[in-house]
Amino acid sequence: MRLGLALGYWGRGPDPDRLGLALEAERLGYHSVWTSEAWGSDAFTPLTWIAAHTSRIRLGTAVAQMAARTPTATAMHALTLDHLSGGRLMLGLGLSGPQVVEGWYGRPFPASPLTATREYVDVVRQVLRREGPVVHEGRYHSHPYTGPDGTGLGRPLKSITHPLRSGLPVLLGAEGPKNIAQTARIADGWLPLYWSPLRPGVYEESLAPLAGRTGDFVIAPMVRAAVCDDIAQGLLPVKTMLGFYIGGMGHTSRNFHADLMARMGYEEEARRVQRLFAEGRRAEAVQAVPDAFADEISLVGPRARIAERLELWRTTPATDLLVTSPDPATLRTLAELVL
Fold first, then answer.
1. b/e per residue 177-192 (b: at least 16 CB within 10 A)
2. How far, in Å, CA of 165 to CA of 173, rounded?
3. Are 143 and 116 in contact (CB under 8 A)?
4. 218 in Cβ contact with 31 (< 8 Å)
5. Matching NCBIfam families, A to Z (predicted)?
6. What DSSP assignment string belongs to 20-77?
7. SS3 content of the chain, % helix, strand, coil (to 5)
8. Who's near 121: CB < 8 A, 6+ residues apart?
9. Which candidate, 112, 129, 192, 224, has a CA 20 to 30 Å from the CA of 234?
């Protein structure tokens, strides 16, 4: 397995320690560093800042939201940063959910998320291949635009800039079974939000399309890690994250994160977390996240316990672990145990 550092997105403001963590990860031999976005800081700008201060570590977005940019704009970001970093970018994309797409980006959530994702990836790849002008007549993306409110003057265009790599990796963040199966068919990798080495069957059917593929396919789950003696205290940040995603990142009637937790065997607990969060009882929602669930998707505890649990992760199809930790000592311990 390879190691990546997942820095996420900013909270109230930029964290001055994050560049130092990225530099330490590169020094330790981590393969990649990843940034993301929700409804505040964007994914590409911090990654460009990190790129300017590093020389070897790969740079990934996990994830850049598709609703934030047209596919051609995303491809422009990607080819620009790939040039500036010397070919180190990995483009991770995600559709997000209706609450963010409609509430933050002010556009309709697609009635067919699979079609919208497939079209988006196709346009991005056309830009990066630069074999000709971008032409796509789809349900959600039209190049040139041919809608009734257009001028009719649009013409197919090819990127002025030659991409550094026509095969720049495109990875997808997917949670639903059909979305994961499509990811296995059309993308270069998958970015799971939750992954449990104790439940190998959860994704087995969705990943079946990989059996007919050739070449490498990246599976890079995010893993909260903490080397500590007090396991309950070490799990608290994991439970806080889960409480927010399961309770607050979606509506009670449509929350992809809660649905995934339910498919992983914790349906009753997921609905309780949702209900408590919706009622404004956020602290109780965090406490309602089962310790067992938080523990099986993370690496928390003394060094010997983490080493033992890593052996479980090695038996899975995961190719990379994207470690979330603000602690340099934890990053060093994982490097010693994995690399």
1. eebbbbbbebbbbbbb
2. 22
3. no
4. no
5. F420_Rv3520c
6. HHHHHHHHHT-SEEEE--SSSS-SHHHHHHHHHH-SSSEEEES-EEGGGS-HHHHHHH
7. 45, 15, 40
8. 71, 93, 170, 172, 186, 187
9. 192
The residue length of the chain stands at: 339
Beta strand segments in the chain, E: 2-8, 32-35, 58-61, 64-65, 89-94, 136-137, 142-143, 170-173, 189-190, 218-219, 222-227, 299-301, 320-324
Please give the structure tokens belonging to residue 271. 């609905």
Cα–Cα distance for residue pair 323/225, rounded to 1 Å: 6
If DSSP codes are grouped into helix, strand and coil, which group holds residue 245?
Answer: helix
Rounded to 5°, the CA angle 245-246-248 comes to 65
Exposed / middle / buried, residue 219 (Cβ in 10 Å: 0-12, 13-18, 19+): buried
Can you name the residues that pair with 123 across neighbouring β-strands? none
CB atoms within 10 A of CB 311: 10
Integer Cα distance of 324 and 149 in angstroms = 45
Q: Are 19 and 329 in contact (CB under 8 A)?
A: no
State how far the Cα of 327 lies from the Cα of 214, in Å rounded to an integer: 38
Note the maximum CA span of the chain: 66
The residue behind tokens 């963040």 is: 173
Distances (CA, A) of 235 to 64, 197, 226, 292, 293: 27, 17, 8, 10, 10
The answer to whether the beta carbons of residues 187 and 172 sit under 8 Å apart is: yes
Angstrom distance (rounded) from CA 182 to CA 330: 35
